[in-house]
Specification:
Layout lengths: L1 E12 L8 H13 L3 E2 L3 E12 L3 E2 L6 E12 L6 E10 L2 E5 L6 E4 L7 E4 L4 E4 L8 H5 L7 E3 L4 E11 L9 E2 L2 E2 L9 E6 L6 E2 L12 H4 L1
Parallel strand pairs: 8-15
Antiparallel strand pairs: 1-5, 2-3, 3-5, 4-5, 6-7, 6-12, 7-8, 9-10, 10-11, 12-15, 12-16, 13-14
Amino acid sequence: MFVLSIIKDTIAILPANFGVPPAQALIAEINKKYANRVLHDVGLCICAFDLVEAGEGKVRYGDGCLWYKVRFRMVVFRPFASEVILAKVKSSDEDGIRLSVGFFDDIYVPLAYLPQPSAFDPNERAHFWLPDSEATTPHELLESATADRMYIDQGEVVRVRAEADEFYDDEPGPPKASEGVAVKREARRAPYSMICSIAEQGLGPVPWWKSAQPDGDAMDEA
């Protein structure tokens, strides 16, 4: 789920922090700049792990800061393909399920990665699985007895497998014009998102698989 990435940068230390040990001041500035930031093709930065190398601080004309060329290791959230993680159901709609791990909410389970046969119940606003059913269409599944349905409810802890991730570079800028006609800007997309699956045995809501149920604090530890 978490990896270490080596990053190079030039970091400024303000005059107010000259009395702080350089390593401590650099780590603080690195976290201020990178924490909760998505780096393209790297992942979601969590915090600095350590300094690998730091040059001598130099003063640039005009600002009075000490500038350091540094190499450091950053803790990054980016589950690898096929990794199994725990997450909570944030919301559900006709297109699938959205999950959260607390600090990251752009995890999605599309319809193709739900256990089959399954359908979306608009009254409960939740998807359900109907094991051992011969029904194939959503209409047939929605006619089933409620007691036979295995719902994936909001807030439930689920075990999912990472299938793919996607980075999107949404740089701000004015809308482009085509032949004198303004083109509307696309809806804002998350800079980093994940696609996951619960379409195999052992995946899905933890209570479905009693023998694989973790301790009560498993979600907090995750």
